[in-house]
Give the backbone structure.
Amino acid sequence: MKNKCILTIGFLMSAISCSLFSSESLHQRNLHLLDFIQDDTPIYNATGEQVPVSKFDNKCIQLYFTATFCGPCKKVSAMIQKHHQSYSTQYEVIVLSWDSDDKLTEYMSKKPHWHYVKYDVKLVQQLNRKAHHLGRTAIPTYINFDINGNYYD
């Protein structure tokens, strides 16, 4: 009975999400990278050094929402890392993690060409609200932006 109830709730949540975020409405949104990452948001490389936002000029950006405690995130991270190794000159990965301090440092040390935004409760809440507008309601997820900073699927 418990599994049936969970399945029913999951189906209802999915139906609500689909009706609120139809593919047509998603494509009509004119979102920009600056809607997620402001010019003054500190971004760090895998070794913890702050990098200027200008480093990302003329590059596609993939914002990747993840956490070390998330099992599916580990598989998606491996896929993104493999893809990024082949195409690292064409796009940059910026990690937005639910982890902080030592866990985030350890996670990033294994992804030497990725960047991250340090965990901040207010920032994470703000970014999650914006991601939800795109129908992204769970981790792992990623949001892509072209070289002009415009959102695309």
